[in-house]
């Protein structure tokens, strides 16, 4: 089992920045990829960015050049961050942290609300 706790969501003006954090605990040795997804009202959950144990990153086209994902591994926990710059109103969503085990199981955090005002 993996537990994920997110933080950092807030209300920000367009053009501003936020940094989301997610701390994973539990069976962290089994985690391969960690990432962020988001869900806007009335829309499907969508991919934002992922980072694997080797540090390789991938981003959705809509956030490339504006968002940066990074990861911090320690003995007892793994943290993943999402630095979001040049925020746009269309970035408004609930952001979910994801951890994927090597066997393919997914774990999700409770979500953190990001609201970008125009």
Rg for CA atoms: 14 Å
Described by the principal axes of the CA atoms, the overall outline is globular
Q: Percent of residues in beta strands? A: over 45%
Determine the fraction of residues in helical runs and give it as a percent range.
under 10%
Number of strands: 11
Low-confidence stretches: none
**Span from first to last CA?**
40 Å
| Secondary-structure-derived class | mainly beta
Compressed to H and E, one letter per element, the order equals EEEEEEEEEEE
Give me a quick take on this structure.
With 118 residues, the chain is mainly beta.
Fold and architecture overview:
With 118 residues, this protein is mainly beta. The protein has no helices and 11 strands. It has strands at 2-7, 11-13, 18-26, 31-39, 46-52, 57-59, 67-73, 78-84, 93-101, 106-108, 112-117. The strands form 2 sheets. Strands 2, 4, 5, 6, 9, 10 and 11 form a 7-stranded mixed sheet that branches. A 4-stranded antiparallel sheet has the order 1-3-8-7, with no helix packed on it. The radius of gyration is 14 Å and the shape is globular. The mean pLDDT is 95.
């Amino acid at each position: 089992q993996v537990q994920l706790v997110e933080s950092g969501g807030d209300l920000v003006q367009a053009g501003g920045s936020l940094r989301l954090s997610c701390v994973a605990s539990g069976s962290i040795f089994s985690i391969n990829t960690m990432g962020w997804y988001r869900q806007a009202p009335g829309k499907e959950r969508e991919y934002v960015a992922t980072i694997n144990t080797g540090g390789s990153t991938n981003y959705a086209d809509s956030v490339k050049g504006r968002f940066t994902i990074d990861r911090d591994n320690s003995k007892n926990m793994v943290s993943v961050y999402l630095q979001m710059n040049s925020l746009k109103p269309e970035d408004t969503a609930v952001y979910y942290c994801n951890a994927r085990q090597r066997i393919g199981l997914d774990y999700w955090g409770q979500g953190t609300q990001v609201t970008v005002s125009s």
